[in-house]
Amino acid sequence: MKLKPTEDRLLVKRLESEEKTAGGIIIPDTAKEKPMQGKVIAAGPGRKNDKGEIIPMSIKEGHIVLFAKWSGTEVKVGTDDLLVMKETDVLAIVE
Question: pTM for the complete prediction?
Answer without folding.
Answer: 0.78
